[in-house]
Amino acid sequence: MTTSSESAAGAGRQELIDALVLTSFATIAVLSRAAAEHDLSLTQLRVLAILRDRRGTIGELAGYLGLDKTTVSGLVGRAEKKGLLQRAQNPADGRAVDVFLTAEGARLAQAGAAQIASSLAPMTGKLTTAQARQLTTLLETLLHEAAP
Amino acid sequence: MTTSSESAAGAGRQELIDALVLTSFATIAVLSRAAAEHDLSLTQLRVLAILRDRRGTIGELAGYLGLDKTTVSGLVGRAEKKGLLQRAQNPADGRAVDVFLTAEGARLAQAGAAQIASSLAPMTGKLTTAQARQLTTLLETLLHEAAP
DNA sequence: TATTGTTATACTCTATAACTATA
DNA sequence: TATAGTTATAGAGTATAACAATA
């Protein structure tokens, strides 16, 4: 793909992409195993994590997750059947449905977060404190939109 | 989770974990959309990417992907039906099956790689060349096993 | 009319169990 | 006996199309 005469702007970009992709797959794999240890799929754990500090409608959840509302309707239905969350009519809009965690769901969300932190420790622990701060800053730069 | 009296070793770890998780989800989402633009699932594109520079058995692919061999058997079957790869008997072991890309599969793997690079450009382009090198190094440190 | 949500449907991904063929 | 692969089966995740209720 790259050539010996690549532009300065593209220097090292392919290496960055490779590292970013590999790290992402590795991280998602760790998260999936962490979720599985609590009998959850990664998507289910994401739902719990989102609802940990806010209640939301089906449509809002779909927006956060980047999934179709019909998909979220199914996810919420399965989680509700497991007793992890509940539906309630939105007081302001009769069409909308509010979703929020049950006590059991909140407990599981907390356990999941702790599990994730300890599961990723073997990776994050390879860095010094200074490196960890540096990496955090770089990743946040990657995540946030460039100034307009 | 964290307290004001956290140990020096844990300083900033939760922020790093948050950034790592968010970046990973964002990256996987971008990759999934890139794959979808070529009518592939992310897993199918991973298979093509792995086979791009080597042929492999079902078991080897399962190892690379972290999936069960029955899952890979299904993935390979569907990709074969689409004309993207082929099976052939392994010459050294009558039980094993070699899998390799067809010309069409190789073309698609190439197109997918290009699509990924351009899809991630809005993210990676936010960094200067020096920052990109720094991030690559940090991610590689995260990925590789600590020296024994 | 437009929006929110659900249901029906279909396909992919995934793993477990049972099986065949080869080592 | 052990290993490589396939098939049958089952369930989760996902989206499209059609629909009901509300705005």
Description:
The structure is a homodimer of 148-residue chains. The mean pLDDT of chain A is 92. Chain A contains six helices and three strands. By secondary structure, chain A is mainly alpha-helical. Chain A has helices at 13-36, 42-51, 58-65, 69-81, 103-124, 129-143; strands at residues 56-57, 85-89, 97-101. Chain A binds a DNA duplex (23 and 23 nucleotides) through α4.
Give a quick account of the main beta sheet of chain A: strands, pairing sense, barrel closure. 3 strands, antiparallel
Compressed to H and E, one letter per element, the order of chain A equals: HHEHHEEHH
Q: Note the overall shape of chain A.
A: globular
**Separate helix tally of chain A:** 6
Supply the helix-strand structural class of chain A: mainly alpha
Radius of gyration of chain A (Å): 19 Å
How would the blueprint of this fold be written?
2 copies of one chain form a homodimer.
Chain A: H1 13-36, H2 42-51, E1 56-57, H3 58-65, H4 69-81, E2 85-89, E3 97-101, H5 103-124, H6 129-143
Chain A binds a DNA duplex (23 and 23 nucleotides) through helix 4.
Put the structure in a nutshell:
The structure is a homodimer of 148-residue chains. By secondary structure, chain A is mostly helical.
